[in-house]
Amino acid sequence: MSELGRRRRLLVLAICCMSLLIVSLDNTILNVALPSIQHELHASVSGMQWTIDAYTLVLASLLMLAGSTADRLGRRRVFLIGLVVFAVGSLLCSLAPGLGWLVVFRMVQAVGGSMLNPVAMSIITNTFTEPRERARAIGVWGGVVGISMAAGPVVGGLLVQSVGWRSIFWINVPIGALAVFLTLRYVPESRAPRPRRVDPVGQLLVITLLGSLTYAIIEAPNAGWTSPQILVFVVAALGSLAGLLIYERRREEPLIDLRFFHSAPFSGATVVAVCAFAALAGFLFINTLYLQNIRGLSALDAGLYMLPMAGMTLIFAPVSGRLVGSRGPRPPLLVAGAAMAASGVLFAAFGAQSANPLLFTGYVLFGIGFGLVNAPITNTAVSGMPRAQAGVAAAVASTSRQVGQSLGVAVIGAVLAGGAHATADTDAFLAAARPAWWIIAGCGAAVLLLGALTTGRWARETARRTAALTTGRWARETARRTAALFDDGPRGQGTADARA
Asked: What does the H/E/C string look like for 66-120?
């Protein structure tokens, strides 16, 4: 892709941010609408979990395939298809006659969503090639999450309270249509010089791993951890993980290039993404149920209560981008981990729900932490990797986020479901939520620890070695294929003659 002028680059960034906006809005608005969906469709706690996790599971399973497909077929083309499918899926969700259909249509949404964020990040990476400018662009990108968190609860609360929960999906349709128009007009097409081949076996193993693991966690409180049903899914998850590690190492062009994980910063960013987004998903899930089912607030009032957290995310996300550009990922990761851990401890040990000043303090701390964590994750994931594989590298980071959200909802929901009448009785809910808050605090502590361990001189050296290893193999493979085309043998000579 040829270099674009500054004005055109900023316009491309804005268009890519629109795709992130509709995906992020969808998540935050849905959380506010969960109690209404629960009452109208008579859903259990596990039913609400599936409403969220059906989307995040499909998204996580297809992100890497979407990234490599975009590198092969064209990033703009795949991005456009994703916008259309996501908008159609949103419209179908608004028409769902029951919980089962809503879960199915959420999966349709996810197919479109898988083609948006990693592909948009790949477009941004190939548009903003100067490291500091790219870090700022990623900071703006992360700031969109803050906008969605600030607008989502309020917009969702207004829609749910005035029109009903089905209206929360309508907002994606006009935004998606505008994004399609602007993409056709302003976003240039780009492809990787040598995209990866399709890896159907690896794709199937990823789907089996994520689906089996999440199903086991969500359904275990009802079925029992030692029930044959749950044990089958646990064994399937472990077998898929083992198969993935063995098969992908032997494949020439794997779905998941395990060599990327030789880089300590990349591996750290992947685990940080899982921990941070698990904490976010759990945080939103607990607070939505608490504010509406326990405190009895309306959907709009619950959204307004969570504005301090959303506002801090909105403020600190672009600050994080500037910090990463000027001082690297270490400072924002350390502060993010400390703030998220402190928020969890405030709820778990000091009962922050008992008084509004403590409640809002916990919200502010979590918002600061989450606002700071997103930019260093993305920047570390794509920095140092070959630009030709930007789609795959960005997809791994996005997959980690979705896996984190799936696990966060599954684990926190399972903890809440384990408490007797946790969603109806105040004392039971608070007792069941206490270990959930300790889990969230642990996720923040993990972000802090990994931020310290994977951003030093040793970690940067592993990233340089990994980049050299990855690029070296790519160069060797390209040379081998070129030599095969012009081989002296009859087959090679025929090919050479044909090309001549």
From this structure: HHHHHHHHCHHHHHHHHHHHHHHHHHHHHCCCCHHHHHHHHHHHHHHHCCCHHHH
For residue range 304-343, list pLDDT tens digits in order: 888 888 888 878 877 887 888 778 888 899 999 999 999 9
* pLDDT at residue 464 greater than cutoff 80: no
The pTM of this model reads 0.77
Name the nearest CA neighbour of 145 among 281, 323, 36.
281
Specify the pLDDT at position 104: 93
- Indicate the pLDDT class of residue 276, thresholds 50, 70 and 90: very high
- Contact present, 487 and 289 (Cβ < 8 Å): no
